[in-house]
Specification:
Layout: H1 4-9, H2 16-31, E1 34-37, E2 43-48, H3 75-83, E3 85-91, E4 110-111, E5 114-118, H4 124-132, E6 136-141, H5 147-153, E7 156-159, E8 179-184, H6 187-197, E9 224-228, H7 229-234, H8 237-252, E10 256-260, H9 265-283, H10 302-313, H11 316-328, H12 335-358, E11 361-365, H13 374-378, H14 382-387, H15 393-398, E12 402-410, E13 413-420, H16 426-440
Parallel strand pairs: 2-3, 2-6, 9-10, 9-11
Antiparallel strand pairs: 1-3, 4-5, 6-8, 7-8, 7-12, 11-13, 12-13
The structure holds glutamine.
Glutamine binds at residues 97-100, 122, 141-145, 173, 276, 389.
């Protein structure tokens, strides 16, 4: 396989692209990570299936978008193609990003470390594909969808500050929370790709930022690390211990470590789910059988037609979230649920800002547990699924940059260490993750 650095040096044999194509097919047969695979040449980049790719079917993991082929590229895709990327395929995901295990869709990816376990979600296909074959994946996070699968699959997941990467061409889940980021094998690769895709885009009013070389932050820095005690309390003991091992590695390099408290951790979770579902319930209104994807014979009036298409096209979790979100913003409930959640969000941001006066970077377990088995997931109630996101949701709600980097194993399964920093301090999370990765050494990925 080809590392990004080798590709940049031009050290590849021309047949490598054929080999990649075969590998992608093999990975998909065994672990079900792609929705589409397409031949080409250039550095292989897979793209989560909610990011529009011109001429390549894009379904956001939903039946309601079956048959939809975008006529334009998302800005992130356009930028990476201009650089020389080959879009090798689209990766499977939870429907519209609704999920933590990538089980809320038809094509469920299997974890390459143990196929009886989930890859995590919602960018499960991307993390799975990167664990199977060395390449880059463009992914997306609303409440943790890059970090969670990166942690379960033993790969790097970088989620930038909200707005740093244009959302143009991204199929919205919750517009005020969605962020395009990168899943890769190394921190350097993720930083390189961020340099290509970040920065203001006239097509997205919420985008911002100048061009920057993020790889320059892959360097040793003496950081002040904060360990949020609530996060360690919420994680399995063995996971907490692993993360503390990682912390001591950084301490040996001269980083200072202090204990901190982030009291609104628990409160962030319901606030996130109310805001995310409220926004999703309006964003999904456009899928009604008229403009995109699924359509059928026009029977009855418009309302009857829309209902028939939506009943057939949306999965169970999408329906649940449309109901929950619609309820939360209805007159009479809006004040109690939606507006209260917005106030909690502001308080969460303030609390993080205060913590970042004391420390440069927060370091914690990415997920409270290692990848779960499918039979365990089946027994979980919807609220148990939501609760699994408790460690990734707060930073996402606040729009802060974060990175999950694999460090060691618990019961033979990879563990992710999470670094989180203040808005636009990608430099700090990149430095921390890069140092840890360098000290950790190479990971031996499962053979496919
Ligand atoms: N698991 C969270 C949710 O279902 C986050 C998903 C995401 O980031 N897309 O909302």
């Amino acid at each position: 396989m080809l590392s990004l650095r080798e590709f940049l040096r031009g050290e590849h044999d021309p047949e490598i692209f054929e080999k990649y194509l075969e590998l992608a097919k093999k990975a998909d047969e065994k672990f079900r990570c792609f929705t589409v695979i397409s031949p080409g040449s250039g550095y292989p980049v897979s793209v989560k299936d909610n990011i529009s790719t011109k001429g390549i079917p894009t379904t956001a993991g939903s039946k309601i978008l079956s048959g939809y082929v975008p006529v334009f590229d998302a800005t992130a895709v356009e930028r990476i193609k201009k650089w020389g990327a080959w879009i090798i395929g689209k990766t499977t995901m939870d429907e519209f990003g609704f999920g933590t295990f990538n089980t809320n869709t038809e094509k469920i990816p299997l974890n390459p470390w143990d196929p009886e376990r989930a890859c995590g979600g919602s960018s499960g296909g991307s993390a799975c594909a990167v664990a199977c074959i060395e390449h880059i994946s463009l992914a997306e996070s609303t409440g943790g969808s890059i970090s969670c699968p990166a942690s379960f699959c033993g790969v790097v997941g970088l989620t930038p500050t909200y707005g740093l990467v244009s959302r143009f061409g991204l199929i919205d889940y919750a517009s005020s929370l969605d962020k395009i980021g990168v899943i890769s094998r190394t921190v350097w690769d993720a930083s390189y790709v961020l340099s290509l895709i970040a920065g203001k885009d006239p097509k997205d009013m919420t985008s911002h930022g100048e061009k920057k070389d993020y790889t320059s932050f892959c360097r040793e820095t003496k950081l002040k690390l904060g360990l949020p005690k609530e996060y360690f309390e919420l994680a399995d003991e063995k996971i907490g211990k692993k993360v503390l091992e990682a912390v001591s590695v950084l301490e040996k390099l001269g980083c200072d470590v202090i204990d901190v408290s982030v009291k609104l951790t628990e409160a962030a979770l319901p606030a996130y789910y109310i805001i995310a579902c409220a926004e999703a319930s309006t964003n999904l209104a456009k899928f009604c059988g008229m403009r995109y994807g699924l359509s059928g014979p026009m029977k009855g009036d418009y309302n009857e037609y829309f209902s028939a298409i939506r009943s057939a096209g949306f999965g169970e979790e999408a329906k649940r979230r449309i109901l929950l979100g619609t309820y939360a913003r209805m007159r009479g409930y809006r004040e109690k649920f939606y507006e209260k959640s917005l106030r909690i969000r502001t308080a969460v941001i303030k609390e993080f800002k205060n913590v970042f006066r004391k420390v440069d970077v927060l370091c914690a377990p990415t997920m409270p547990f290692v990848a779960k088995r499918f039979d365990e997931i089946e027994k979980m109630e919807p609220l148990d699924h939501y609760r699994s996101d408790i460690l990734t949701v707060p930073v996402n709600l606040a729009g802060l940059p974060h990175i999950s980097v694999p460090f060691g194993f618990v019961n033979g399964l990879p563990v992710g260490v999470h670094f989180m920093a203040d808005h636009l301090r990608e430099d700090l999370v990149i430095s921390a993750a890069w140092m840890l990765e360098r000290e950790r050494g190479e990971i031996k990925y499962p053979k496919i």
